[in-house]
Design a protein that fits this description.
CATH class of the largest domain: Alpha Beta
Number of domains: 2
Distance between the termini: 40 Å
CATH superfamily of the largest domain: P-loop containing nucleotide triphosphate hydrolases
Helix content: 10-25%
Strand content: 25-35%
Shape: elongated
CATH topology of the largest domain: Rossmann fold
Number of helices: 11
Oligomer: single chain
Radius of gyration: 25 Å
Number of strands: 21
CATH architecture of the largest domain: 3-Layer(aba) Sandwich
Structural class: alpha+beta
């Protein structure tokens, strides 16, 4: 048996009334593997604990298979949770740890057959008579997973179960978790701050920031069409290039996006997305280019939809199968100040609480603001105490990172021709909301 989980406008606040989860709505289908992704402190684990019944829901409703579940005790939710720190009983063997919940649920039943079956599934038969102190980190996590699987729950809740393991073991167990959950067909909610885990495991990924849901969709959709600059910057390795731009759209000339010392000339006839950029005439925007959207080639080799730039090599990162080249193009990087600390300020939360008793229009405006959880980008560099500008994010040399093959020979200080594929160009407004590409279908007047 698997389970459908629905969260409707769920909120949770701790001290001083600051909401760690703010009006979160999610529909998780039976058998789906949903990943909650976001930086530390964004409310991921709190959402998981509210689903499990370990935290009370302050506002909103939880439905389990369509039935109201806010007040249902954890023991009646038929869910199994896997924690980050293994949470094994040190005085029990692996066999006893796996069988413990079975003995609690059915005191008169022998748990041995289900324990043995679970151990075979996980390949830990030879670990059943060992104590946790005699196991490695990966072996402990397998035992912890076995304790959850043996119960045959309707849903798995996993709270960063691989974060304490080394990289090689983490990759191995990631593949095992994916295979096991699909074989069992059990609804799984998985919390992580590692976007590589999220993209490789999830049927869908829900990105949170400051307790507010930013976007939910398949890994491919979230990567290729991010709703805002936070999602674009949080997902993808290396991080997306974010540059300050200025839209110039004269009536008698070509539309361009100025990047400081250089510009991107939008080819004519303009696509629908680029036509809609005319309303940004004279405004500063944020240009997003992933490393694979730019290639090293001469202007004569440009394909349809590619425009030329030049870059000065600042730094080379050899990755074996590829090289990440850091270029200086004379552009100014856009800053995402809350990417590593995304929670809205207490002052903003206080203003929201004061307005809760306002008019319907005021509440709608406040709701729209909450969806962004505060500004996600800034085009002005903050100042240090000595008055000099300071970047919020530590950056390596250069303003543009390009992914290329290791056979291309480059050296520091070399001037290199670049081609930008405008089909993979993102443009965000000053608040960080995506304005290009626009939705696939614009609403008609009748809607």
């Amino acid at each position: 048996m698997t389970r459908a989980i629905t969260l409707h406008d769920v909120s949770k606040a701790y001290t001083r009334g600051v909401r760690v989860v703010d009006r979160l709505s999610l529909d998780i289908a039976p058998g789906e593997f949903l990943v909650l992704l976001g930086p530390s402190g964004c409310g991921k684990s709190t959402v998981l604990r509210m689903i499990a019944g370990l935290e009370e829901i302050d506002e909103g409703r939880l439905f389990l298979d369509g039935e109201y579940g806010n007040d249902l005790p954890p023991s009646d939710r038929d869910m199994a949770m896997v924690f980050q720190n293994f949470a094994l009983y040190p005085s029990m063997t692996s066999r006893d740890n796996i069988g413990f919940p079975l003995r609690i649920e059915a005191p008169g039943t022998d748990p041995a057959p289900r324990v043995d079956a679970t151990a075979r599934m996980l390949g830990i038969e030879d670990l059943l008579d060992r104590f946790p102190a005699q196991l490695s980190g990966g072996e402990r996590q397998r035992v912890a997973m076995g304790r959850a699987i043996a119960r045959h729950p309707s849903a798995f809740l996993m709270d960063e179960p691989l974060s304490n393991l080394d990289a090689k073991l983490r990759n191995h167990l990631r593949a095992e978790i994916s295979q096991l959950t699909r074989e069992l067909g059990v609804t799984t909610v998985y919390v992580t701050h590692d976007q590589s885990e999220a993209m490789s495991l999830g049927d869908r990924v829900a990105v949170l920031r400051g307790g507010v849901l930013q976007q939910v969709g398949t890994p491919r959709a979230v990567y290729s069409l991010p709703n805002n600059v936070f999602v674009a910057a949080f997902i993808g390795t290396p991080r997306i290039n974010l540059l300050r731009g200025l839209v110039r759209a004269p009536l008698d000339g070509a539309m361009t996006i100025s990047l400081g010392k250089q510009f991107l000339r939008l080819p004519e006839p303009l696509s629908l997305d680029h036509q809609l950029l005319r309303v940004q005439q004279g405004r500063e925007v944020i240009v997003g280019l992933r490393s694979e959207a730019v290639r090293i080639a001469k202007p004569a080799a440009a394909r349809t939809g590619e425009v030329a730039l030049t870059g000065l090599v600042e730094h080379l990162e050899f990755q074996g199968h590829e090289v990440l080249v850091h270029f200086n193009t004379g552009s100014s990087p856009a800053v995402v100040p809350e990417l590593e600390a995304p929670r809205p300020s207490p002052e903003r939360q206080a203003r929201r609480r004061r307005r809760e008793g306002g008019t319907v229009l005021e509440r709608l405006r406040e709701r729209a603001g909450a969806l962004r959880a505060g500004s996600v980008a800034t085009l002005d560099e903050p100042a240090r105490p000595d008055g000099a500008p300071a970047s919020v994010e530590p950056r390596v040399a250069g303003d543009l990172i390009v992914r290329t093959t290791p056979d291309i020979r480059l050296r520091h200080g070399m001037q290199v021709p670049l081609l930008v594929d405008l089909a993979h160009l993102f443009v965000f407004d000053q608040h960080g909301e995506r304005i290009c590409p626009n939705p696939d279908r614009l609403p008609g007047l009748e809607e």
